[in-house]
Design brief:
2 domains; globular; alpha/beta; 42% helix; 377 residues; Rossmann fold
Length: 377
Amino acid sequence: MRIAYFNANLRRGQDGVTTVMYKMFEGALARRHQAMAFTSTLPDAQDRIIPMHRVPSVALPLQRNYRIAVPGYQMFANRLDSFSPDIIHINSPCTLGFAAMKYAQDYGIPIVATYHTHFPTYPRYYGLARLEQLTWRVSRRLYNKMNRTFVPTLPILHELKEHEIERLEYLPNGVDLDLFNAKRRSLAWREKINAQNRAVVLFVSRLVWEKDLAVLARAYQLLRQNRTDFEMVIVGDGHAREEFQEMMPGAHFLGYQSGHVLAESYASSDIFVFPSTTETFGLVTIEAMASGLAPVAAKVGGAAGIIQDGKSGLFAPPLNAEGLANGVSFLLDNPRRREEIARNALERAQEFSWKMILGQLFSSYESVIYEHKARAA
């Protein structure tokens, strides 16, 4: 099987999408399939584990680490013609994704997508709420051209159905259980942030407003009004970092982390807090659960499809700082209950095996190709 992957960014570990995509690449190689990727942003040379082709692009004004491709498929058509893919898989609803869709239509190639990012929710964070319905229309225009769209959680799948997006398949993301596990807990790490006798509350994310940073900042301020028995740790970076850091006095900002360094930060903490209402899955939540943390998250989207309320985590109402603070306070006040939830969270994380998930993905590719050929015949 020859698979062409498309995504605006391919820097390994830059976000959850690229983390998942590298698992796809590895899965293709392990199954002896041929794969090629097209992107606006190439990774470092050692991370180009499959052939990768960069297309012309321009930087996004607010997020310089992300670039948007010049519209149209002329900039990659010759390379894709030579590769002659059996199937195309797009991973972002950007100009590059639309170009791949148009190529697939014009050349009669089956195409699938993964709904990684809940873009219709983003305009409200930048004073552009009126554009939300337009974003849904653009999303329908793209995803309804797909032979299949993979959706990582059932709550998001049901929301997409309500917005008349068709041919959806539930396919969760996985977690690297060898990398993210409680064995990486480090007393030295905790000593560095003065947490020998305090619990550590962790947040991991790109620091952008659509992750509901303002809600987390308010929850932190509410917690600090009444207690000093915890340390707050922020892992990640982004254009909102400076302003967000001013809203979180006393919190430890560790910057962007990946690999074993990130795994140590997870395992050395106690509670994971995640206010985002824009996740389709929330890879950081399942990584925290696999690392032995008890999560407190907004009851919406990705988290609602991962956490079992009261068993493997606690929920707070969406966009509710007080509810988020109350959940964290409960876990701080009840360490035995926190340990029980953490054990259940770890058990829940074991269900998200990449081996099983990738098996379903490549089986779905074969099914889509077969159905496409049958319709053509």
